[in-house]
Amino acid sequence: MSKAICQKIASELNVRADQVVAAVTLIDDGNTVPFIARYRKEATGGLDDTQLRSLDSRLLYLRELDERKNTILKSIGEQGKLTPELENAIESADSKTRLEDLYLPYKPKRRTKGQIAIEAGLEPLADKLWNHPEHEPETEASQYVNAENGIVDSKAALDGARAIVMERIAEDADLLAKIRRYLNQHAEINARVIDGKEGEGEKFKDYFEHNESISKIPSHRALAMLRGRNEGILSLALNADPQVEEGARNPIAKRLSQTTIRYHLVTLPLTAGVSKSLVGLGVLRFPCIWKPN
What is the pTM of this model? Predict the structure, then answer.
């Protein structure tokens, strides 16, 4: 039994730590929440059914979180990339979402354009253009032309450097967290019927032309729209700035990237690519269903 977990749950439920310890012991011994609530009040100091259900749910979540932390620390350690700063950040992560964001740059994945570019020797170019935006990109890129590595001209070198930087931005844990928060607060979901599917999708007619704020949409409507999309009746889009005229919108990925990290837009024009990368990484999902924990 983890004392830290028990203390955290006690703080969240505003009860004593010894009450939580007693309840956890009973749960670990195989007792159900209804049984504990009804017959073991004296042991838990009077915790009621609602408190015990919240405790049981958080206990499972926090234990899974700790187990995942250990797995991630082991994985990054085996890669030889675990720094004291990263280890502290992982140990301090208070949600699965934050934890997975931190692990993202180190998570084994299929070879990406950025990885291929690194293998071709273009990481120093990406670092130089990132850290010294005053340098002329074409001039710097010309020094990395290498036909044997598939870098046939300076444009290919810049494309590779851009892919490396795009992945770094799209895997920045703080940026991902900011985008999730922003979308949960401001974005809306737009549902439209696919041309020619009106008759077939009669049961989804309420969503043929439907806009709704992510922060207010109930789960049953969100799930209905997702079913409509999965059945090929609806198309879904996420509008990050519904209050702004379309032509005047400044992409969220660009705005938040510029304020979160040193985003050298003039040197490496990344906006569209970064937005697509963030979508591909699952950041621009349906926040009403996949809210950060």
Answer: 0.65
